[in-house]
Amino acid sequence: MIKATERNFTAQAGTVLEMNVYDKDGHFLLEMGAPLTESCIRRILAVGYINVYSRKREPSEGHPPEASKASAHAPPLTTTQKPRFQAFNKAYVEKKNDAAKLIHDISNGGIVDVEAIAAQTESIMSELNDKKDLIGYLTFMEGTDDVTYGHSINVSLLSNLFGQWIGLSADEMKVLTVAGMLHDVGKTQIPAEIINKTGKLTDEEFKIMKSHPKLGYDILTTRKLDKEIQFAALMHHEKLDGSGYPLRLTADKITRFASIVAICDIYDAMTANRSYRPKICPFTIFETFENKFYGELHTEYLLVFLDKIAHSFMNNLVKLSNNEVGEVIHVHPKSISRPIIRLDNGTFVDLQTDKSLSVAEVY
Prior knowledge:
By secondary structure, the protein is of the alpha+beta class.
């Protein structure tokens, strides 16, 4: 792959792309069939590393399209084709299977090996070149739709990342990581037909589902574990205002790690496909957090989480609600769900002021 400069970039304005164009990290830039404008070329040059084939918009009849290329190599790899993602996904799938067996064994009276549980999550995290890549990778990893075991390992990974953000000690990181992994252990006691139901739960089914925090706590209190791990299982659905369950605890009663796990739990559940709905766009989730969860979730931790998560999407391509595609170039500190987007035509859209548009999808 070569670096594109005005000197070696030979595709001309007015030609038509014969292929989708991606940057060196596999992010989608331009669609096959799109006419190359001067602004498109400037965008490609700004990225630096590209492969582009284009043809004249109206080739002569009887002659093959005339190709102009910036590189003789194959197109850049997509996210799921990248070796670093594949290594991460391989480790994730292996450890998810291990975690499923471990959680199942614990629910049936097996020992809780805190060191082994923490090591599983750490081994997956070690496959990341940059820890913030985790946020994007969660969208593509196999098994993230598993509402018990896949979800448990995701919450453990997010909790581990959160612990790094707030500077926890090594011992605290271990406890928080394990708390994330075991927060839903009580769901192993809930009938599968309720866990996997595609329609709305009946009142009785919902009552049974809401028993999983207490069931998990009961499982973990029979072991010698840090209380934060036990309380994370019990309290991860509690709310500061007392509207949560199972005990309707208020702010002063909810432990700090339970507060962190609660945030990670909600975010992962909303970004994953579920039997009753598709996954939700992260920026839609940010808006939900901003509008609904202040006053319900730990404010300081929520602010940290939203700021870090939102900024992990900086420079990502996104599709807007009007189907235009652009790049996130700025996240407003007080309105992270409505960033500034630079469109492919070089114009800017500030979603904080233009309320008619929103981010519909992240690439």
